[in-house]
Amino acid sequence: MQDLHGRTVDYLRLSVTDRCNFRCRYCMPPSGILKRDQRDILSLEELEEIASACVRCGIKKIRLTGGEPLVRRGIVDLCRRIRRIPGLQELCLTTNGSLLPQLAAPLREAGVDRVNISLDTLRPDRFAHMTRLGDLSDVVSGVEAAEAAGFHNLKFDTVLIGGFNDDEIEDFVSLTRDHPWEVRFIELMPMGPCAGWNRRCFLPGDTVLKRISTLQKIPPSGVAQRYQLPGAMGTVGLIAPVNHDFCSQCRRIRVTADGKLKGCLHSAEELPLRGLHGKELEDAIRRGILQKPQRHHLAERRSDTPRNMNQIGG
Fold first, then answer.
1. CB-based contacts of 125: which residues, under 8 Å, 6+ apart?
2. What is this structure's pTM?
3. How far apart are CA 1 and CA 292, in angstroms?
4. CA dihedral 10, 99, 308, 193 (to 10 degrees)
5. What stretches in the chain show pLDDT beneath 70?
6. How far apart are CA 78 and CA 238, in angstroms?
7. CATH second-level architecture of 11-311?
8. So what's the pLDDT on residue 304?
9. How far is residue 49's CA from residue 82's CA, in Å, rounded to a whole number?
10. How far, in Å, CA of 209 to CA of 205, rounded?
């Protein structure tokens, strides 16, 4: 269905947990999050019910997010349930990749069509520093497991951070020469723990094009402007929510792990869905789609949302 600004909304990002086995510095505080009682988080049955209602309201693609979705107990069963929803065309999942060695094959068997892997550095020492708890070797093993399970054309989401990983741009782009992968550079957004960081950390996506002059433009995919090295197997994507906002093309809504519908990642507006069923639930979802904000204001100020990214879903 369309919102009040004429955008067709057919994509749901459904957060299944706010917990994560990493503590990435731009996403979560050093001590992690205040652990909620399990009763405060949507059950598997509630997640399935909301997903089904969203599909009946016109959603065709669902991406499961977190926190880290693979730490959610029952995630494989949830994927299997959601994939069976009549009318759903695509089920995807975004993960930090560390648990894919154990779960890639079961997820593929359960019907997950595609996985995106968040990866901000290729250097083990930097990886440990940024994630606080992570080991890069686990993610490398996860990539291998994903490909072995049949997840082809992987996408890697790399948050571009000045003074941290901007000297690795060439290394990331080089990954696309011999692999059918898409490396997507995403502008760091002023929200959560990083909102007060030095402005030099917030680089425009065009930085990649200035560093790699041989990239050639190809047709976009969703919100990503896409490029390719001559003769490369893979592609490079640029997602620039701050400097080249794509609000006019945004076709997504989000549901948080505690059951709030958000029409925009950066809006403070939330619509409670928990406890609603049948037509009442569908009416609330349609209302949330219709009232989706026209745009965010990241170019003028920090994000309006009071939540950290792990509490919304990446």
1. none
2. 0.93
3. 12
4. -140
5. 32-34, 245, 295-314
6. 31
7. Alpha-Beta Barrel (3.20)
8. 60
9. 9
10. 8
